[in-house]
Amino acid sequence: MSDRAVATSSQRNWAVIIAGLIVLQAAALYLMGRAPICTCGTIKLWHGMVLSAENSQHITDWYTPSHIIHGFLFYFFAWLVLPRGSLLARLALAVGVEAGWESL
Fold this sequence. Notes:
This protein is mainly alpha-helical. Helices cover 62% and strands 4% of the residues. The protein contains 3 helices and 2 strands; from the N terminus they run H-E-E-H-H.
């Protein structure tokens, strides 16, 4: 195999791992009784009421910036832990930590 084929295969493997982590997190939350999307019958781009049954059930809400900041922080820590790791390897670590954090 050429170096390029190995790199492409490695990237594909990391992408599958990242997708798998997201699916596992979604399954864990579902098994804990969390609905994947609002059961109210509508899907909103933004839901701004924190103290409501629809909180965290739409595409974005007040917690979205927190998730983005966590993502950057976890990626930064992954960069510190895996300085020679690929971007996707560090991303997989960050996604895994965020998925675990979200499932607590």
